[in-house]
Amino acid sequence: MAQTEKKGGLLRKSSASKKPLKEKVVLMYDEIFTTEDPSKCNPRFWEELFLMKVNLEYLEGKLEALDGEELMKIKDNINCLFQHCIQALGEEHPIRVVNALQTLCALIRGVHQKNKSTSGFDIINMLVGFDKAELCMKNLMESLDSLLCAEGSESLKSLCLKLLLCLVTVTDNISQNTILEYVMINSIFEAILQILSSPLSRREHGYDAVVLLALLVNYRKYESVNPYIVKLSIVDDEATLNGMGLVIAQALSEYNRQYKDKEEEHQTGFFSALTNMVGSMFIADADEKISVQTNEAILLALYEAVHLNRNFITVLAQSHPEMGLMTTPTSPIPTTPVTPLGTTPPSSDVISSAELPLDADVQTSNLLITFLKYSSIVMQDTKDEHRLHSGKLCLIILTCIAEDQYANAFLHDDNMNFRVNLHRMPMRHRKKAADKNLPCRPLVCAVLDLMVEFIVTHMMKEFPMDLYVRCIQIVHKLLCYQKKCRVRLHYTWRELWSALINLLKFLMSNETVLLAKHNIFTLALMVVNLFNMFITYGDTFLPTPSSYDELYYEIIRMHQNFDNLYSMVLRLSTNAGQWKEPASKVTHALVNIRAIINHFNPKIESYAAVNHISQLSEDQVLEVVRSNYDTLTLKLQDGLDQYERYSEQHKEAAFFKELVRSISINVRKNLAFNTLSQELLLKEFSTIS
Q: Which keywords describe this protein according to UniProt (predicted)?
């Protein structure tokens, strides 16, 4: 007996002796694509259509094959199909609802392909007709809201979210997507929150819900009042905020785990053996091979939560067991394969205070630690555009955290100590730190470590100036808090001072190349003012008097770098070029550093001469420093502990517009509506009479 093959809506016998037979649903689609009303000959047409398995490929292809004029001719039938889809969403028969949801997805995507300026018709008019648009979209949003909030099928909820993601991402620039006006008017915000607050719903749909919310918040956020922004900013329900935090933490943890697995696989492989054999000439190439696709969508969700909602700051510090060490609890198998949006979303929510009590033997973690680990990975390689965007967004999130009073309180809390294993870039001159030797410290130490790591590892020809500026600003804001609250942090400040001095050295060594692209004096001024902050206020926040002595020791030891910097800025500030003003600011900022060098250097030389010592030890230099503080005169510099607060709209609007565009394209590309097999659905709905 000849076997039957199925392809593109056609049923054909392998003998090919007969004409190909079309599926009934395909024949029904063809009727819609005529100018006649398909229900004239068959009054039960629409009723029967939604009992048929949707052929997404055929329906979308048919829509895309038509030009603007041809599509306008069948506009009435398209409107009718759209309206009947919405009506079917209210039916009790779940198969009809599923087919209606999938048909809507195909309709929206297919029609939007034609929504070009040349075709001269409006998408809303094409889908529903202007006269019925408001009522139809209201009914659609109300139906989706009801399905998302109902106790019913998880498959239906999954499809509802996918339809909404389809609606939102159908254009690259979501702010040009006029359909979203109806999503603003008929809000589904509460439905999204309900998903995030329920452990079961969160496990199944949390990822899609969080990405959807992040995108909706970015619809015309600078041009009009976006209700999703307003509502997100005032959410104070602990279960909801924690639920959102758990979804984000799980997605970031999954990325960290994938990266770690690839890293371990890479280190144990042949290439690692070869690298060890021939030295570290291949380190850069080797590192490039360890790449896991970044997840800007989930990072955007974290940013919006931190930036808009002050209550979310508490979620950052919410302790839970280390996700990488956990075994996933048994949970119901999802009724639909989870669709990747950028990266594979987590398959289950492994944390909930009710599900997993803290174990004394398990390393505790929190969202902030997971985020810092994620940041340490994506900030390693900024040559790739996606990682550059991710790295920038990580630093923007850290900027918001560093400005928040409550966040600073738990960052600096001596009673909240954690071991944070940040990823460090392979470098020839340093050994890989052993994970087990990491001390337990306040979380601000990990933030400072991350900043120091970035400073040390990105001095290269393609200099990421913007990221360096943000990095120094974060350090400055943390110091301002420490000075204000007199927090004496036990941190290895020498590593920071050394990194900053090496950064100044790099700027001077590459003056010509860098000045062709960047105003390096802005960055140099910020670095010098960090030192001024330590010099002027260090006695209020450095842990011990000896730490303050060590600061002076480092300045004196590395005085040649400060001397060279002074010579460079003096040369440029006395010329009438474009750098005169920014260079002269650095000249003035160096006054106290130069005073320290000029005051102590002669005293050290005198001490060496009197005691007949050719080279002084660190202890001997420190002794000279301590003995001669009294005669040192420094100028009081104003504004060192002041900073301009972060403002998205005025400075970052272009970045976020481009980022959201990139996320929208990525989400649309990875969105799958046909993940529900008809067999699986029939099994799930087998109880229907």
A: Membrane, Transmembrane, Transmembrane helix
